[in-house]
Model the fold of this input.
Amino acid sequence: MGECSNCKVCCTLSVVTELDKKAGETCSKCTTSGCSIYGNHPQVCKDFECAYYQGGTNEELRPDKCGVMFFKKTDRIFCGIKVPDIQVTDLAMGQIKSLNKQGYSVVLLEIGEKPYIMLANTHITEDIYKEYTEVLKKHGNI
Done:
């Protein structure tokens, strides 16, 4: 399991409607020592599973270091959100290629930009886009 340390990228990139927090804004509950309402934090925060935190063994893949926050969206899709003002590293690009080889398509997002889909070999763009859109609708993101 990875260690968040001083990362806190999820506290900036995530949308948290319960706190009226938009993507790209640092959460008002985020402090230098972590979440000031941890334990009473919104369900969307409790449900979020950063891929680095879940299985990170290489600290250079921590979102604030590699430039991408990865998380699993479905059994076929991982998302990666580009961290503003941090260059996407070769290691992060290697992670995307590794996920593709494992059979995951990666939807790469950048705040204010259209999603970019990096397909696994057996996937079709239209199918992945439809699946991704259905997940967003289900969770009220569109």
